[in-house]
Amino acid sequence: MFESIILSLIGGLTLFLYALHYLSESLKSVAGGKLQFYLNKFTGNLFTGIASGTIITILLDSSSAVIIMTIALVKSRALTFRQAMGIVMGANIGTTISSQIIALDVGKYSSVLMAIGFLLLMLAKKRLPKNIGRVLLGFGLIFFGLYVIEDSVAPLRQSPEFAGWMLALEKPLKGVGIGALVTLIIQSSSATVGMVIALGAKKLITITAGIAVMLGAELGTCSDTLLASIGRSRQAVKTGIFHLFFNITTIILALILFTPFGQLVHYLSGEAPLERQIANAHVLFNCLGVFIYIPFVPLTERLINFVIPEQHPTTSPAHLANPEK
């Protein structure tokens, strides 16, 4: 039994990860240049930076893609470190929209989206309907991948060993560690949260364990941006460090207030199904984290600037020999 479950789970997860990449690349090819333009234009202050990061992450369906794009723009001096901080915070909010979409019970209709998208992609002559086809096909593949994951884990409800392992994730630190490790391996926080939501839909995980693993996914996703900042300018490195620092700070705060946070999620969700409660926790965590952190952005900027100062060019020997030049 376990062999067939694992094979189906790997297949569903692979399809889901490919669909996320395909959708993100399709959206970037449609509006990538314009998005970079708007990132630069509408980040004059922290609040417009947060708004821009949120909107563009919703459009690209990938916070990692937006933050990596931001690091590249900072390296090219098209954005400053201060502008990048707002975009990073906004990206954390924008990525929660995907969890809300994933929590919708649309897996059984995914084949319709895939069919419409494929037909538009193959038969359309103009660029716009072809691009719409790519997006619809991407969403259809995402939902179908989740449907395969949900279907593959359903037999685990009869497994006492799996039930015991999932109950162990109710310990917040253990849940966070597992969530971070899974995200580090598959390189997608959306996939980790998506799997947790799929487990919630089958009643294979509790809300407590779901929140803990979701927090771990927020930590694991920092690996992408840290890797993207290696070998870049110091301003770009600061952006990657800020993403890690911001996520760690908000995760620690959530762990300290873990019980009241869970109670707040339950109160706001009411009688919503478990998968919707997990998606709501994802939204609430990131929105509250940004709201609470806003007053500390100037202090964080000064701290990171102090730890990673700008490297001033050294005086060349030629200049020393001719100081008047």
UniProtKB/TrEMBL annotation:
Q: Provide the membrane topology annotation.
A: Multi-pass membrane protein
- A Pfam family of the record is Na_Pi_cotrans
What Gene Ontology molecular-function terms does this entry list? sodium:phosphate symporter activity
Keywords, A to Z? Cell membrane, Membrane, Transmembrane, Transmembrane helix
Predominant cellular place of this UniProt entry's protein:
membrane
Q: Where in the cell is it found?
A: Cell membrane
A biological process (GO) of this protein is: sodium-dependent phosphate transport
Give the stretches traversing the membrane. 5-24, 44-72, 109-124, 131-149, 176-199, 241-261, 281-299
Write down the InterPro entries for this protein, in alphabetical order: Na/Pi_transpt
A cellular component term from Gene Ontology for this protein is: plasma membrane
Do you know which NCBIfam families this protein is assigned to? Na_Pi_symport (NF037997)
Q: What is this protein called?
A: Sodium-dependent phosphate transport protein 2A
Organism (species)? Adhaeribacter pallidiroseus
